[in-house]
Amino acid sequence: MGYEPQADFGTPEVLSEITVTLTIDGRPISVPAGTSVMRAAAESGGSIPKLCASDNLAAFGSCRLCLVEVDGMRGTPASCTTPVAEGMVVHTQTPRLQRLRKGVMELYISDHPLDCLTCSANNDCELQDTAAQVGLRDVRYGYEGASHLGLGVDSSNPYFDFDPSKCIACSRCVRACDEVQGTLALTMDGRGFASTISAGQSADNFLSSECVSCGACVQACPTATLQEKAVKEIGKPERAVITTCAYCGVGCTFRAEMRGEQLVRMVPWKDGKANRGHSCVKGRFAWGYAHHKDRITSPMIRESIDQPWREVSWDEALSHTATRLNAIKAQHGARALGGITSSRCTNEETFLVQKLVRAGFGSNNVDTCARVCHSPTGYGLKQTFGTSAGTQDFDSVMDADVILLIGANPTDAHPVFASRMKRRLRQGAKLIVIDPRRIDLVRSPHVEAAHHLPLQPGTNVAVLTAMAHVIVTEKLADEAFIRERCDWDEYQDWAAFVADERHSPEALEAVTRVPAADLRAAARLYATGGNGAIYYGLGVTEHSQGSSTVMAIANLAMATGNIGRRGVGVNPLRGQNNVQGACDMGSFPHELSGYRHISDGATRALFEADWGVALDPDPGLRIPNMLDAAVDGSFRALYVQGEDILQSDPNTHHVAAGLKAMDLVIVHDLFLNETANYAHVFLPGSTFLEKDGTFTNAERRIQLVRKVMEPANGMSDWQVTQALANAMGLGWSYSHPREIMDEVARLTPSFAGVSFARLEEAGSLQWPVNAAHPDGSPIMHEDGFVRGKGHFVVTDYIPTDERTGPRYPLLLTTGRILSQYNVGAQTRRTENSIWHDEDVLEIHPTDAENRGLNTGDWVRLASRTGETTLRALVTDRVAPGVVYTTFHHPSTQANVVTTDYSDWATNCPEYKVTAVQVAPSNGPSDWQRDYDAQARQSRRIAGHAEAAE
Description:
The protein is of the alpha/beta class. It contains 29 helices and 36 strands.
């Protein structure tokens, strides 16, 4: 599409069933009651000059440019703060208004440098456009500049500059930081011509302040005061393409604004239903990895992992790979081959990989990182509710009265949704946080949880059972809902179980380390506080009792009637952009798309008829089973698309041993990642900017991903998989991802009504989309559960086999940080590393003192499976006995210490509970030095001096 700025109606949309009819400049218009005159004028095709107003901010009324005349009303009211009234007659352009607006604008321009021709915002500046709109052609007052304020340009932020000389004190950036982001990092200092924006304390700049670099202030600024460095360097964009972010599971929609083949900026799209015009530092700014020098764009092969890589043509790479795969299949059988799909790739690409494994390799040995993070969600919610996904859309949180947040840290991992949640909390909703660590939402300058239950890692089930005990024994359950919507006999069995005195908060306090009085108060609040919504993350699923915890959450929601309407529900916050989609597309060894078991003959027959092959009726191997089988000699070849299992999967030594034992490892990715250390074939991948397709976010929202630029490697990922399939003789003939989605739709009941054409028309759709729900399903289980009656499951607390003891007395849990993403392959190759350039170990002051440790010291982190070293951060964010780190940097390789313990139902690894010891260290361990040397050796490319990490 061409480049046109997003329409701005000046004030937010008002939802009201009452309609008001008025006349604006002789044109009649009907709008919802409560709409501002400014917005009504814009919707009628008019345009009232404005500077302080924007439709994602509350009306402010400070710039005095949007004055109008209203028949029967004295003066010239501001149109942004004046609501419409029945029969109102408005005039937006009269000689009087023209004179007033020119005078106001002249004052603004008198305090603004007139360097438009050389300004980076030239022809992309609201101040410039508004001056022309009001007809200002001359300024009588001289410009003194901002030098009298002693202020220079603040270039501390890696992505944007702040030039106070161009500030017009409209406060839009301050209000955006408050109302949209919820950080409140910016303030307005001074008065009159001395007014200026401040990023916190007087000594702060934008880098050192509380600013989280979400870009809301940059987007709100009507001048070049806050300007992206890329715009200054490249120039004004000339076209824009709407696409979907490839970072977390929020699924933000962006306008990728281009100049030629260069991406200038990513601007959050106001019509994006997941993000509503907001963004975070990753999606907004951290796209530079797409053209990083480390990116590999040519296929490469080698005979053994101790040899350098050899660049080859696509034809040679694909022919070589297909020949090796077919030979291994002929010698060792179909079950010696497998594949791993990616939660970062599109639905269409994921679907093709699992199809290649099942129809081409001939086995069901397909798995995905989605099992490594959220498979207990799929299992637990399917057992209780009948469907393997969250129940609400993100907007639903604005109707919640009580938010129960367990095992999730949305301000770091899902920041755009966290901003919406914070907005609701500032409106008065109550928050319960169940987390062993004091996350930001527990207490920050503008948000504080009603209750923080800092449980012992691994005791989620015990905490939730104790909450259920309070709800049942104090008769706080919603009996009418349970009798109508759930199996009453199952409920009685469950209620008897949780009511047992051994499940009381007092009895379990020794296990959970949560004070019984606090737990009781939290349970009462959730049960009686109005609409109760539960949001959870990997701190729930990545446990040996992950599936049990998900079912315990579902039990709690059903017992209190918090299912099936706005403001309630059970909602997993998915980690990666397409974790939900990877599950939906059939990436598990036991399930075809739509969560239907491979052993079901009718389902299998549907796929066999469509694909023209016979499918193995037996489930295949999960990733850890593939690795075990490789060490045993029965699993020989692996195709890995867009995943880095050596860094992201547990017990790094075990992963390395399995990969090393294989005859053929094919890595299909952007960079020579850690898994590629053990690969024999490297197929270069494409970024989300270089492909068409769809992602499905955490709210089941299917959204289009549109190609912004041509793939640097020559092919989108779906084309690479198709080319490999055809080299093996499969004869696929897709010409566009829309054809793959058509296949998904005809084979998958929940996607039956999905097509690219429908998505173009609707913007997005939330599955199920079928005859019963032609426009999708924002809220699930409204009239009844998908499975029929809600299923209560008794979830007994069973302690993990991973125990602390004299040798390993501390418990390690892991998580993410705002600036980095997952294994860091993308964000580490951007300026985001300025905020987090290494993983650190958070340790409580008591534990640090006992070990003679201070912040910044090197420490040895050891478990029963391995050890690594990293620097310490002494903080009371973690409880005594608990330590915490992130896993973004391969130099730390934090998963070398995690164990093979996993969820009883799904094999989801127990990342969140590892018994460890922490001791002083002199620096990187021998293992880290050996690993680094092996990685450097493995990344050699013939004809290149050295391949960078």
